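Protein Record: Sequence and Backbone Structure Tokens
======================================================
Tokens: labelled as protein backbone structure tokens, with as many entries as the chain has residues.
Task: work out the structure tokens from the sequence, keeping to the layout shown below.
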Amino acid sequence: MLIVREKMSTRTMVKTAVLSVLAFLIMYFEVPLWFTPPFLKVDLSDIPALIGAFSLGPVAGVVIELLKNILNVAIEGTTTGAVGELANFFVGSIFVFVAGIIYQNKKSFKSAILGMVAATIAMTVAVSVLNYYFLIPFYAKLFGVSVDQYVEMGAQVNRFVTDYKSFILYGIVPFNLLKGIMISVITIPLYKRVSPILHR
């Protein structure tokens, strides 16, 4: 019995590691959106973590988020003292854990959709609060600029942005809602294809 458990654990670790590397590689591909300033770009590296959360459990999804960010810091380095990577881990973990735990309670297509909808909302709320109170003020201080300069960059591409709060409301919020939708829409057909492999 112990040997079987050890083998299963090893298999889970290998699958988690493979998904983590895939997530790290996907981080290289970033897509700018038309209504946000250039420094805000969508990357779809949460897809392997979400697939891991569905197939291996929500904790595995969080581990994948952790490992991809560790790999990013170790290989690419960081310009924010790892604060940006820590925020990426925190927000990504909320997304995959919420989706994964809802799906694990009842494994069905309906619960997967419900999980991804709830995860998208949770991620959007978390990242909006994090940006408003910490990240944007931190980056402004780190790079020696004012918060207003970030607002101005947002106003140049989004006419609804007029102040800091509207930057969060009309820039950060729709950005993350769209990101969550993109990740979810891509994950649905991918998970059907790879889940038989991950469940072997």
Summary: The longest helix spans residues 164-198. The domain at 2-198 is CATH 1.10.1760.20 (Arp2/3 complex 21 kDa subunit ARPC3).
